[in-house]
Amino acid sequence: MDLNEALAQLAELEKKLYAYQAASSSLYLDATTTAPRDTAEGRGVALGVLAGERHKLFASPGTGELLNLLWEKRDGLDRLRFREVKELRRACAQLTRIPPDEYMEYAMLTNEASGVWRRAKEQNDFELFRPVLEKLAAFNIKFAGYYDPSKAPYDALLNEYERGVDMEYLDGFFATLRARIVPLLQAVMAKEAPDDSFLRRHYPIEAQRKFSAYLMEVLGLDRAHCAIGETEHPYTLEFNNKDVRITTRYDEDNLAFSMYSVVHEGGHAKYELGVCDEVQYTCLAGGVSMGVHESQSRFYENLIGRSRPFIEAIFPKMRELFPEQLADVTAEQFHRAVNKVRPSLIRTEADELTYCLHIMVRYEIEKRLIGGTLAVKDVPELWNRLYKEYLGVDVPCGREGCLQDSHWSGGDFGYFPSYALGSAYAAQMLKNMEADMDVWGPVSRGDLSGVSAWLGEKVHKFGGLLEPAGVVKNACGQFDPTVFADYLEKKYSALYGL
Amino acid sequence: MDLNEALAQLAELEKKLYAYQAASSSLYLDATTTAPRDTAEGRGVALGVLAGERHKLFASPGTGELLNLLWEKRDGLDRLRFREVKELRRACAQLTRIPPDEYMEYAMLTNEASGVWRRAKEQNDFELFRPVLEKLAAFNIKFAGYYDPSKAPYDALLNEYERGVDMEYLDGFFATLRARIVPLLQAVMAKEAPDDSFLRRHYPIEAQRKFSAYLMEVLGLDRAHCAIGETEHPYTLEFNNKDVRITTRYDEDNLAFSMYSVVHEGGHAKYELGVCDEVQYTCLAGGVSMGVHESQSRFYENLIGRSRPFIEAIFPKMRELFPEQLADVTAEQFHRAVNKVRPSLIRTEADELTYCLHIMVRYEIEKRLIGGTLAVKDVPELWNRLYKEYLGVDVPCGREGCLQDSHWSGGDFGYFPSYALGSAYAAQMLKNMEADMDVWGPVSRGDLSGVSAWLGEKVHKFGGLLEPAGVVKNACGQFDPTVFADYLEKKYSALYGL
């Protein structure tokens, strides 16, 4: 087979993988937005087959031979194809270590688990979720051994979400943050809290939907390529760089929840929509890693969305949409309210300062659970104890405790730390962006095009063309978590007059 | 290979076909309900691959050998497996006659075409749609030759939608109806028309959504297994007998449109939800043919939904949901209004009496288009001429003319006649149902359980276990289109005092 024929076969292989992924995504999107309640069975059959076909494709001798042939001829490949073959060979190796029947069983389990988790959360009943969580954890421990038997299981899983990251690295990262956040939090809590009661007035869902549309416009999200849906737990789903979906959840008695969900998921969507055309329908399409992805969502949510200039820019529109609710509120008050620090129970509603503490709880639990030193039945107890220890709050029930997140029901163990890494990357990106251009002048006029262009050039366009560490280096320089700590100190000192 | 192993392989093959179908359905559902506008490209890639994989599965020598082996051992198969193998062999033969590249190209074309058709309809511009319609017609003429080169192309296509039906049969069927409908229509039009202006008062969409939910409840559609969405053109989509979707479109100035869309699609959904468990995830799952399917939707829409007892039963709820709009309207007036006869432009808004005339226009056009005696560019002219001739109305523009239906954009030529056949089957089913039980007493109390049980036993449960003609025989006895003509005569004579 000559190189051209091999490249044609590679393109066909990638299109097939894209199709299976798009099909699974579509079924997932449907399941979480519009599917009737008791329909998991048939979807499980379909998802199981699709996962099995994908697995078979990776495991087929033909695929291995094709990739080996292309690897031998790698000197003749351009940068894109070189990266593509390298990543595919890695993915292939990882996946083929999992026996096909286990892989299919796992796909069907995660499909079932999301329904069980939803019911357990609704009914506030951890026992309902426990048996599937046990199976999910057991599968992940086994898979970790397949991925890299030389690593501790949790290290092997972490490496799948953010290559190069392990427990040693994260223990240090979190220790640095904890040492800076805890005294800062204490100083903040000693001050008078701003009034944020107006955020929990009655905000009708229809007006909130209009607000979402406005926020997407300000973010520069093209609605011809990006739709918004409604789900229990907001997420972003990408089909390709011309078809991205975000979701939110509306709470009539809480304006900030959906507002910052939209800005957060909008940040993810900006990334996906900004990836270059060249890598579409290949394994290099889409954001490069969870951590880099979170850097983008958090950049928009916290660094832009919770900044004074941004609030000033959008406040007139908010007053228009919610004239009665915000009649007695100024932009300054709103800015202080959405930056109010308050140790709380729910991660997705946490303020920027305590957020990392929520992550540390999950990190500590996952570390033990996957490490085999914590039984699933003991998760609620440890969860509650750590929330008391790190955040000083008492967890009253599972719904506000260890049943709050969807991640574990989707089989995602090792994902949470990337949220904290993303926050830290984002702070360093902002520092560099401020050195390159006037960030806040345009933002205060509601013009995010400069921000968008900078992130597009430094992060978005590459997709998987660079390694995660390469993208971080490109946008952050040498990564240094103290930049994030400095940012938090500066921000909250100003807000609370420390 | 022994029989048990062959049956296990058959089940695996069927599951795979189910998965590809479910995946394509999910992508279609998404495309028509929530996908952003400019996203057809990526979906086309995925749908093309899925169609190609399905095609490859059918065309693979292994599949042929498996089906041949099972066919040789057919004496050892139970009724279900026997039918399954027979139908799969037929489907396999039909599909493998289409070359894989043409099949994939066609899948991508129909995906593209639905977007083009939507824009053409929006912009009222047939020229925009013409090039894709030309391609679609050319593909279908070619495919007809693959299906059965001994038949005229249109006969070959008709046979795919309703096995055994051809132009000779339909020419006779439509002639019978025309001979009875035309004088009846003239008699009706000579009488004073009932007032139906109140149907076009302002009916807020939110209240109409509640009305849809109520109608689904009355029909006995379990919302845990049947969801409702909103699309330009209402349709029913089934994943399996526990997961069915219907869609509707709300017009704030027209109560009847969505009302009867919901009851119509609800009839399709009842059928799909009523198919027995044994045939799920096989080629025998789902309704057996387009004609039988339409008999169910029309049974609920027209024979039940437009009956006086049904209107009496639901009228109190309507008065509750639309108190001002219906303040001066009685159930009797409502019943007369939704049965008002008026030759019109739009098929989906046509009354029960003139509906078949709309179908005859499409039948005549398809017959010539696929027969090669009509060029696509001349479709609007012939459409407009036939509407004038059959219905006496002038077509002012494409949107209200030949751009109104989605069918051709989906590549469906030969589908329309099944609508008329379905109406005729339904009338004969009602006659037999009335002989078996008290239909109207329970219906007048809003209790459709008896109707549902009768149709469940006579039609729904079989799925594809019987041939279409077998189901028709089971529920209708010997098919006789004059029963439908008698029904129309009796109904409209009473309504219009003829």
Explain briefly what this protein structure is.
Two copies of one chain form a homodimer. Chain A is mainly α and 498 residues long.
| Radius of gyration of chain A, taken over Cα atoms and rounded to an integer in Å | 23 Å
**Spans of chain A of 5+ residues with little confidence (pLDDT < 50)?**
none
CATH class of the largest domain in chain A: Mainly Alpha
Q: Main beta sheet of chain A, described?
A: 3 strands, mixed
Neighbour order of strands in the largest sheet of chain A: 1-3-2
End-to-end Cα distance of chain A, whole Å, is 69 Å
* Second CATH tier, the architecture of the largest domain in chain A: Orthogonal Bundle
User: How much strand content do the residues of chain A show?
Assistant: under 5%
Please provide the ordered H/E string of secondary-structure elements of chain A.
HHHHHHHHHEEEHHHHHHHHHHH
Question: Which structural category fits the helices and strands of chain A?
Answer: mainly alpha
Number of helices of chain A: 20
Estimate percent helicity of chain A.
55-70%
Oligomer: homodimer
Shape of chain A: globular
In total, how many domains does the architecture of chain A comprise? Answer: 2
Query: Which chain pair has the greatest contact?
Result: A-B, 41 and 41 residues
- The average pLDDT of chain A is 95
